[in-house]
């Protein structure tokens, strides 16, 4: 049986936003070697090993008898989440704390929620600051475009 990461497999139309961009097909019970997971997630094998060593994974990655790592679909989703948290500026200590809470299981959802809401506030603050900076850049572009008149054919557009 094959499943597609990033697409609704429940039939409910619901899918966490963090997984919506993934479009990876693997077998439901399939395991992937580290090289494939590195390619799928855009991480290096070194980074994936670091995630394990530093306690960032929600569980231990399975290994074959010969010591080769094998990742599941759930591991790939988790690695994607780590990447998103890190790319939005979440410190490693907070990612580790979140992973610790997930590993601990049910009963700490309030702590998880507080951690994620705190990070969300931080991201929104950064977004507002960058948007303000973009406005200043757009104003300067407008000044120069107006001065140059017809010499400039394209004006900056807002995303």
3D structure, described in words:
With 159 residues, the protein is mainly alpha-helical. It has two domains: 2-105, Multidrug-efflux Transporter Regulator, Chain: A, Domain 2; 112-159, no CATH class. The chain has five helices and five strands. Residues 1-27 have low confidence and may be disordered.
Strand order of the largest sheet: 3-5-4
In N-to-C order, the SSE pattern is EEEHHEEHHH
| Average pLDDT taken over every residue | 81
Low-confidence stretches: 1-27
Give the biggest beta sheet: 3 strands, antiparallel
Which value, in Å, is the CA radius of gyration?
21 Å
Q: Let me know the number of strands.
A: 5
Domain module tally: 2
What is CATH's topology name of the largest domain? Answer: Multidrug-efflux Transporter Regulator, Chain: A, Domain 2
Percent in helix: 40-55%
Number of helices: 5
- Report the end-to-end length measured between terminal Cα atoms: 40 Å
> What fraction of the residues are assigned to beta strands by DSSP?
5-15%
CATH class identity of the largest domain = Mainly Alpha
Output the structural class: mainly alpha
Oligomer: single chain
């Amino acid at each position: 049986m094959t499943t597609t990461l990033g697409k609704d497999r429940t039939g409910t139309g619901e899918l966490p936003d963090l997984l919506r961009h993934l479009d990876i097909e693997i077998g439901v019970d399939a395991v992937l070697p580290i090289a494939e997971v590195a390619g799928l997630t855009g991480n290096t094998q070194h980074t994936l090993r670091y995630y394990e060593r530093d306690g960032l994974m929600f569980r231990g990655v399975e290994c074959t008898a010969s010591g080769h790592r094998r990742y599941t679909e759930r591991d790939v989703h988790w690695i994607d989440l780590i990447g998103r948290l890190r790319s939005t500026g979440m410190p490693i200590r907070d990612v580790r704390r979140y992973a610790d809470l997930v590993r601990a299981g049910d009963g700490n959802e309030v702590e998880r929620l507080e951690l994620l809401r705190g990070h969300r506030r931080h991201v929104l603050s950064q977004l507002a600051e960058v948007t303000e900076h973009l406005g200043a850049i757009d104003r300067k572009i407008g000044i120069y475009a107006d001065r140059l008149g017809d010499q400039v054919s394209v004006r900056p557009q807002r995303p």
